[in-house]
Design a protein that fits this description.
single chain, alpha+beta, FAD/NAD(P)-binding domain, Polyamine Oxidase, Chain A, domain 2, 6-stranded mixed beta sheet, globular
Length: 312
């Protein structure tokens, strides 16, 4: 049966919208091209040196400013990262536990890439890697540049999407033996190539048989090296991390990098979502750089759908 609503993107915006619609009894399906749910609320797993490793390589923590957002996270298992800041909330045993809890009971299909999107005869027609789909309504919760490519430059909402500016982020994940230097839990320096460093294993529920670090490069450094090969990025970022930590790079048990091409909005849309008949487009990029901004966008779109805004 054709779902009335297809939501494209299983990050916090898409899952929040789907969660609210489902609680109101609305049928929908969430599609995402990635292997794992949650978008940048992600946890990467790896095996190295006989160890099962995990890294929160996207959003490091959530710090609610809206009490409703704090309550929403608490209902889905968020816990305090007290070693860093008791107001920093994280998933357990990884950040990906939060989107998985939000998605419980929802119809979510990973590994489904939407290649084309057009509206004809009152329906949305989706071309995907698994075949064609149809829906009465589409909710796009992907980064603005990706939404623009999918809709095309001639779409009426294209000029507003073009005004959104997003910055990339290169992320290094590295593990070291226990007993290696741990000079801090978190470290922030906007003027350093590695603008943020966190001892990931200090979060609750993480393995204690290895020391894991996350280092996220500054926007300028990330943009300058975005198209470098993963090996080249790793060869540059690992020594930078080890210099800050005071440990030799050869001590690393495992290290890899991840390229977030659309990490955060530096020029957001300025309102919670874009809307055309039977089409909603939203994400954190609508309001700012934080996951909470994505939650606000998803909630606003769900409420608009339930309020019958499609006719506007």
């Amino acid at each position: 049966m054709m779902p009335p609503t297809i939501i494209i993107g299983s990050g916090i915006t898409g899952l929040t919208c789907a969660h609210i619609l489902a609680r109101a009894g609305q049928a929908m399906r969430v599609l995402d091209k990635g292997r794992d749910i949650g978008g940048r609320m992600a946890t990467k797993r790896a095996d190295a040196a006989g160890l099962a490793l995990s890294y929160d390589h996207g959003a490091q923590y959530l710090r609610p400013r809206d009490t409703d957002f704090g309550a929403f996270l608490a209902r889905h298992g968020a816990v305090s990262w007290s070693d860093a800041d008791p107001l920093h909330l994280v998933g357990q045993p990884g950040m990906s536990a939060l989107p998985r809890a939000i998605a419980k009971g929802l119809d979510v299909a990973q590994g489904v890439e939407v290649l084309g999107l057009r509206h004809a005869q009152g329906l949305w027609h989706l071309e995907t890697n698994l075949g064609p789909l149809q829906a009465q309504r589409v909710v796009l919760t992907i980064p603005a540049p990706q939404a623009l490519r999918l809709l095309g430059p001639d779409h009426p909402l294209a000029p507003e999407l073009e005004r959104v500016r997003m910055a990339p982020c290169l992320t290094l994940m590295a593990s070291f033996p226990t007993g290696s230097p741990t000079p801090f839990t978190t470290w922030r320096d906007a003027d350093h190539p590695l603008a943020w460093i966190a001892q990931d294993n200090s979060k609750p529920g993480r393995p204690d048989d290895v020391i894991t670090w996350i280092a996220q490069a500054s926007p300028d450094y990330s943009a300058a090296h975005l198209e470098d090969t993963p090996d080249t990025i790793l060869s540059k970022m690992l020594p930078l991390l080890c210099t800050v930590l005071g440990t030799p790079p050869e001590q690393a048990l495992h290290a890899q990098v991840h390229r977030w091409r659309y990490a955060q909005a530096v020029q957001p849309l300025g309102r919670p979502f874009l809307h055309a008949p039977q089409l909603y487009i939203g994400g954190d990029w609508c309001l700012g750089p934080r996951a909470e901004d994505g939650w606000r966008s998803g909630r606003a779109m769900a409420h608009a759908i339930l309020g019958g805004a499609d006719a506007v």
